[in-house]
Amino acid sequence: MADRVKTVLITQQDPGSDKNPYSELAKKYKLKIDYRPFIHVEGVESLDFRQQRVDVLEHTAVIFTSRNAVDHFFRLSRELRITIPDTMKYFCMSEAIAFYLQKYIQYRKRKIFYGNGKFNELMDSIKKHKSESFLLPCSDILKPSIPETLEKESIRFTKAMMYRTVCSDLSDLADVKYDMLVFFSPSDIESLFKNFPDFKQNTTRIAVFGPTTAQAVQDANLRIDVMAPNPKAPSMSMAIEQYIQEHK
Phi and psi of 129, rounded to 5°? Predict the structure, then answer.
């Protein structure tokens, strides 16, 4: 029987504040919670981007699915000396991404549309502007459902790979052991085995968020101990707490 969970590694960026659900968990159950992203984003070089033969100015609207997409769209525009016209329309997956645009442009609501974090919701706005030519800045890992949905609705769009998801160097964690590892994407699992090819789970608990991450864990022949979301726990922090309470 494994000992109770005392140490947890969250494979994401430190939220930088004590006001988050994981901090509450740590206090409540006397846990040591560390943060370490297993993956990070690197921008595509302007020379590589040119080889994609994407003309940014041929498009009248941009679809942003993340802040990374915003950052690298404006970075490449700057590096390639492309002046984005004031008439450009922006369609953002969430309100937070829309507000993030203020970092680069003067915020005018008449040109900025946003959803509630789900692409299908954003599609309602996109379909009302079918005459636009859309640019979709993305990484090398793009949910197939996004271009599939655009194609299904006969939206004119161009994929533009502007950044990549790459495995982080985790060599400093080689001798560090945690009772629980928390993963949020299939790329996290890829990074785990790239850094530690001989990784053995043994008594380490593995917590995963979402079905695609769960599938990657199963494909790697690892055991899933905590699954989120689930009917009783919509968030990862709630699922971890559920596990701790059940295994006191």
Answer: -125, 45
C-alpha span between 134 and 21 (Å, rounded): 37
Instruction: State which H helix or E strand residue 47 sits in.
Output: helix 46-50
- Element holding 35 (H helix, E strand): strand 32-35
The whole-angstrom separation of Cα 163 and Cα 188 is 17
- Residue 94 sits at φ, ψ, to 5 deg, of -140, 165
Could you report the per-residue pLDDT of 65-89, keeping only the tens digit for each?
Answer: 999 999 999 999 999 999 999 999 9
pTM of the model: 0.79
Structural domains in the chain, sorted by start: 42-165 (3.40.50.10090)
pLDDT at 178 exceeding the cut of 80: yes
Q: Which two tokens stand for residue 222?
A: 């690892």
- What's residue 106's pLDDT? 83
Q: Are 105 and 112 in contact (CB under 8 A)?
A: no
Would you say how long the chain is, in residues? 248
Contact partners, residue 5, CB within 8 Å, separation at least 6: 29, 31, 179, 180, 205, 240, 243, 244, 247
Within 64-158, residue ranges assigned H as helices are 67-79, 95-100, 119-127, 145-152
End-to-end Cα spacing for the chain: 12
CA 202 to chain CA centroid, nearest Å: 28
* Measured CA distances, 2 to 27, 85, 183, 201, 221 (Å): 22, 60, 20, 12, 19
